[in-house]
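thread from #wetlab-drylab

HS: before we spend reagent money on co-crystallization trials with zinc ion, can we at least see a predicted complex? here's what I'd submit
DV: go for it
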Amino acid sequence: MTINHHPPEDLLADFAAGRLDEADRLVVGVHAAQCPRCRRFIAAIEQLAGAALEQAAPVTMADDAFATIMAAIDEPEAAPVPALSRPVPLLDDDLPEILLRCRFGKSRRVAPGVKMQPIVLPGAGQSRAFLLWSAPGTRMLEHSHTGTELTLVLKGSFSHQGGDFRPGDFDFGDGEVDHQPIVGNDMPCLCLVAMSGDLQMRGWLGRLISPFVRL
Ligand SMILES: [Zn+2]
């Protein structure tokens, strides 16, 4: 897997410091599990934090700090949950194991050629997590965000002004970003998304359908 797009460094730093809410942590964690470069960055932040602690007080960072973080990613659920709530139509067996262990709500259609399925997380954070399935060649409406949108490609691909995004790639959107993703023609695209706030559609068509697009 060649990964070309990574989370912004401040997001990785917040992940390392445990400052992300559950949904954001899930998406960054699934990316980091696939991305040696981001794991190294997170480990470096850990070491810096450890060094700062050593200077501040006679405490040393545990050798297994990073392993502990990765273990925490592996177990995003605080409480024991059923292995897999069925049906899970958007998810294949060959997807990241962390996701196979999550609980899912009911999938629903949000627009022509676009379906979403919520992921049930225990902590009530600002962001919600869901799978987003789009048919080949789907053109999303141009939109911006009132909050943040963290997207990890699991299967297929999409493109927008920021480049081409393939499995493992991470896309960060916020109110500064105005984009119109187009899904690759060859196969459906499945993404893991954490979103806070709402989508803001652009153009007359976007404003017209915006009350009906709920993610
Ligand atoms: Zn990465």
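DV: The chain is about 30% helix and 25% strand.
HS: ok that's useful, forwarding to the group
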